[in-house]
Amino acid sequence: MLQLHIFDPESARWRQIDADTLRYPLNGDEKIWADLSTATLVEQQNLLQKLSIHPVIAEDFLRERHPPKLEATAEFTLLILRAFAGKNFIDYPGHAQISLLFSGNILLYKCQQMAFDFALLIPSFDPSKVHMAMKDWVKQYIHSVSASYLEKLINFEDELGDFEDLMLTHGDDHKMATIMRYRSVFRKLERNLAYQKEMFADLLTPEDDHPFVAQFQTVELRDFYEKFERLHSMTQMYYDQLGDLVSAYMSTSSHQINERMKVLTMVSTIFIPLTFIVGIYGMNFDNMPELHLASGYYWTLIGMGALAIGMLVGFKVKRWW
């Protein structure tokens, strides 16, 4: 269902209208705010056609999945953002795509989100904000997208600290599987944030005459960039820290395995000559010299014991254990 609001400058009020009654071009200070999140494809196409949106921009706006993008014509600017749409980072439920198509007096908003249980804190239309410029609505949406990552990343810092302590004391394969899931999620987040960071970084070049730049002050553009740059840096840092946990756990496991193998190797080394002696005296030859020796059994055990103790002493002197 298409939600269409128009601002009447004479009454200084927003009112909801039907798309069929919309007249374009607008008169004077009239403004349009439309939510296309639940609109059908036909409703969206009809509205874009009525507003004379360029076909290339209209096609990108209508797409259900599109990487973050900033594109503009002389009249309209298209901004596509990706917000994190989950409660935490244990799993990656996907992202919510925020598509904004706007000019000085028109804003078309669309949030495409899969059927998640978690609701994004995206600003909804507020008819009381009669004097709010369209660029300020856009600024709010950009801030809400960055906020969808920031709070969860800050909370994850404490969780990661606790997880590091657990891995040092009670690391196991189950916790390793959790770390690998986290790493997979942060790799996806890193890609989303890298797109958006670079998108705003391109607007900070002095020679850029992008229409989006003309609508915002330099300090606002830098604020957009720094928000996503900071989020991107935090995501990379957590990804690297999780990688360090994996490496530390693998090193610890390898060390433990090596210690066990060392013990098994020493035991095997001791019993190899003893087994050789047992094998010699287990032969069934009539003329074996010690076969009829009355105390041969005891001397053989004493010799085998002395050999084993001597080898253990040698291992100790060489600091092999």
Description:
The protein is α+β, with helices and mostly antiparallel strands. It folds into 2 domains: 3-252, CorA soluble domain-like (Beta Polymerase, domain 2); 261-317, Methane Monooxygenase Hydroxylase, Chain G, domain 1 (Up-down Bundle), CATH 1.20.58.340. Helices cover 55% and strands 13% of the residues. It has 7 helices and 7 strands, in the order βββααββββααααα. The chain has helices at 41-50, 55-62, 134-170, 173-201, 211-215, 218-281, 296-317, and strands spanning 3-8, 13-17, 31-35, 69-72, 77-84, 95-102, 106-112. The protein has a 7-stranded mixed β-sheet with strand order 2-1-3-7-6-5-4, sandwiched between helices. Strand 4 and strand 5 (77-84) form a beta hairpin. It is rod-shaped. The N and C termini lie far apart (75 Å). The model has no long low-confidence stretch (mean pLDDT 86).
What is shown here, in short?
Helices cover 55% and strands 13% of the residues. It contains 7 helices and 7 strands; from the N terminus they run E-E-E-H-H-E-E-E-E-H-H-H-H-H.
